[in-house]
Specification:
393 residues, alpha+beta, phage-related protein like fold, Elongation Factor Tu (Ef-tu), domain 3, seven-stranded mixed β-sheet, six-stranded antiparallel β-sheet, 7 helices, 21 strands
């Protein structure tokens, strides 16, 4: 084949395009780092194998001691109607305190939810929903054994979820030289992070469900519920910018349950930016640059510490990837979670924790096929010990 005749200066456009070497940086620039901190922390702190596709746990609380009035009562009424079913919480000889008026009451008898109290000298009118503290019982001398009371334990459960992240290449593609390394190893590294991101997303946003016959192949299908679904009690809608009062109230509500030393705050960059501008007084600065102080315990970098309720320092982990979520319409970009790590466990099915499977190519096909596969669940105990704040703008 005859070449093209060129006269005068030979520029870059006269030589063969394939003759020129490409100036390619061997390092591939990552748009986002590996921000699967929750996955790393739970793998480091607590993870137990599950022995079947449904994981169960039991939760318990101490016997309740707060009741409320069902309606308004006059200052002389000696029969106090409680909210339905709360009559089981009190019994004769209990001492009650109205936490609004500070009036003390001694219970004489209980009939369903109607509580008869001793004559109220200097009584105070009660409003509907007045909170009454069951202080303690005051038994007379020589009394018989009081009626025993028992608070049944609650069953917690979740299902295992199968997540698969595959990658495939032709045999020829795996043989050729490429910048940044050869395939499939180069793609395997990226897929490892993507797979971890799936499992971590399930921990926060997963939904709990099980069907005996799936639409795709007629076989059973389970999905694992995450924190956003399990947490019911402590949910705060900021409905605007995050304020110290809103977050302080959430910390107050959650710190009284579980282990306060194991609370960790996971926040979107939006929340982290707003918290870092505060200056709480009385317990030091709200935001304390944490650096690597919690790496030894949790295995990840902690972005800061929040000094607040009960005087504890709460580690703050910024979920940078949540910046891609929308904020408008109470989107996930305006979310934060306070999590008691002592009550969280990742529960991979035995023999089914994350594996790299490289034998996925169909017989006879000149291809390479591999995948990461995990079947796991999340155990999220005592939902009152965790909290969610959302709607931050």
């Amino acid at each position: 084949m005859a070449g093209t005749v060129v006269t005068g200066y030979v520029s870059t456009e006269e030589v063969l395009a394939d003759e020129r070497k490409i100036d390619m940086d061997e390092r591939i620039k990552k748009v986002r780092p590996d921000d699967t901190q929750f996955y790393t922390m739970t793998s480091r702190v607590s993870a137990r194998s599950a022995i079947r596709e449904k994981v169960n746990w039991m939760e318990e609380e101490y016997f309740p001691r707060i009741v409320a009035t069902a309606g308004a009562e006059t200052a002389s009424d000696t029969v106090i109607d409680l909210v339905a079913t709360q009559g089981k919480i009190v019994q004769p000889n209990d001492i009650l305190r109205n936490m609004r008026t500070n009036e003390a009451l001694r219970v004489v008898s209980v009939a369903t939810d109607a509580v008869t109290v001793a004559t109220r000298t200097g009584g105070v009118a009660m409003n509907a929903s007045d909170p009454l503290l069951v202080v303690a019982d005051a038994q007379p001398q020589g009394s018989d054994l009081p009626v025993a009371r028992y608070l049944a334990r609650v069953l917690g459960y979740n299902y295992t979820q199968i997540s698969r992240t595959p990658w495939t290449f032709t045999g020829t593609q795996t043989a050729i030289e490429m910048y940044g390394g050869k395939e499939p190893a180069k793609e395997a590294a990226r897929k490892a992070v993507e797979h971890k991101r799936k499992i971590e997303a399930t921990a926060f946003w997963g939904t709990r469900s099980f069907v005996a016959s799936s639409a795709s192949n007629g076989e059973p299908q389970g999905t694992a519920g995450g924190l956003n679904e399990f947490i019911v009690t402590n949910r705060k809608d900021a409905n605007g910018p995050l304020t110290p009062d809103i977050l302080g109230n959430l910390l107050t509500d959650t710190m009284s349950y579980g282990n306060a030393d194991d609370k960790v705050l996971f926040v979107s960059p939006l929340l982290a930016g707003q918290i870092s501008k505060w200056a709480w007084t009385g317990m030091g600065s709200a935001w304390d640059g944490g650096g690597d102080r919690s790496r030894a315990k949790y295995g990840v970098r902690v972005d800061g510490f929040l000094n607040g309720t009960y005087g504890y320092q709460v580690p703050v982990v910024v979920k940078k990837e949540w910046a891609e979520f929308p904020v408008a319409g109470k989107g996930y970009g305006g979310y934060g979670f306070i999590v008691d790590m002592s009550l969280i466990e990742r529960r991979p099915l035995q023999g089914r924790d994350t594996k790299l499977l490289t034998d996925r190519a169909p017989a006879g096909k000149d291809v390479y096929a591999a995948e990461y596969m995990t079947e796991t669940s999340w155990q999220i105990g005592n939902e009152k010990a965790h909290g969610v704040i959302f709607g931050v703008t």
